Amino acid sequence: KHSQVPQASGFDSTLSFLREGYDFISNRCDDLGTDGFETRVMLRSVLCLRGESAVSLFYGQDLFTRKGAMPPSTLRLLQDKGSVQSLDGEAHRHRKRMFSQLLVGTPPDRMVSLFERHWRKAEEIWIANGETELFSASNLVLTHAAWEWGGLPADTMDIDDLCDQLVGMVENAGRIGPRMWRELARRAALERRLERLIVQLRKGEIKAADDAPVSFITRWIDSDGNELSAKVAAVELINLLRPIVAIGRWILFSAMALHRYPQWQIRIAAGADEWIEPFVEEVRRTYPFFPVIGGRALRPFSWGGKRFDSGQWVMLDLFSTNRDARIYPDPLAIHPERAPSWRDQDFRFMPQGAGDLRKDHRCPGEWLTVSIMSSAIRLLTRDMRYQVDDQNLDMPMNRLPTRPKGGLRIRLADHTI
Ligand code: HEM
Known about the structure:
Elements lengths: L13 H7 L3 H9 L3 E6 L2 E6 L2 H7 L5 E2 L6 H7 L10 H15 L5 H21 L1 E3 H17 L8 H13 L6 H26 L9 H7 L10 H31 L1 H8 L6 H11 L5 E6 L3 E3 L2 E3 L4 E5 H5 L43 H18 L1 E3 L21 E5 L4
Helix pairs in contact: 6-7, 6-15, 7-8, 7-11, 8-9, 8-11, 9-11, 10-11, 11-15, 12-15, 13-15
Bound molecules: protoporphyrin IX containing FE (HEM).
Protoporphyrin IX containing FE binds next to helix 5, helix 11 and helix 15.
């Protein structure tokens, strides 16, 4: 009798995963006619899942820990030990409140206006140069804005270096080998630097505004009744800065989408504000960022009529779940009319995780992300005149995370002439 959870062919799928990247899980699900299969990756048994009911298993029940669920180097590069993502249960929920209060407790207006100010300043340079590459340009704007938003004194950080380090963490998260080790060493150095700044802040040797995120983190009382150690406070500060800068990738994709859908570019340029957020959400749904989320079961569970033990490793396919034709007909096309939204907190739309952000590991940064992307779209369509010359915008699907290798080159005209 056939199991309802088929086994993928071959003893171990590590090489296929590296070769197929974003498409690895969906290729096999399509072939096997299923939403879940078992295989081995790095010789470890893994249950690979996609689709709405898999998402509701994965999120919302405190069933999966992120510990031991990603290659250790990826985890350390993106989140590191002691971070909110490495916690479970009550300790997680408590620490998560720190992020929710900062990121969804009030609208992200301050971050957006800092972003716009730094964008307009940079725009003058882009115009003077006649052209720019939008991915690296956005990253730098975001780093300036994020550092100012965070609240540590401007003269305590070299922003170009910081940008390089934060971008490197994301660009190299899917790598193995020497590049990854170099990246881990750079991350460790940044952590130590921020740790020292936090110690100085606590001693009153440097100042930050009372309502600045860095002050909030530094004062936060954790679930054990104590302030965070300087080391963990630094890790969580990086957990704000790194993903804000990562929005640069979504800005790149937004500009690519505007280029691909000139009718939307024109409509939004003409003032259709109500379509900006739905357009942004469709960009987040269709373009590739996080391929999968890994979890390890904290308790036994069932899937497809089969029982799995506590400790079972699961990989949930974010990318293909967002492009599920059963939920989104014509799934690869951008149709802002369908307007999926992070506000729904359900299990169908998961560019940055799914479910209830207070209870599970869903990303707390979605409101901020969508707001910054919306602002970038307003700036691109209404504030700037630019042309996109012919260039290679292919995205290799086995690079994690992927993007066009050369970003997006744009040619600018001074709109005041
Ligand atoms: C968690 C994606 C932006 C802070 C996550 C998760 C994903 C994600 C997939 C993991 C969910 C899980 O483990 O189940 C993204 C993407 C972003 C982004 C693609 C676009 C740039 C942000 C921003 C912030 C942020 C702007 C904060 C300023 C976090 C934190 C977590 C997280 C702190 C850990 C939450 C937890 O474990 O409870 N994000 N995120 N992210 N994100 Fe984001």
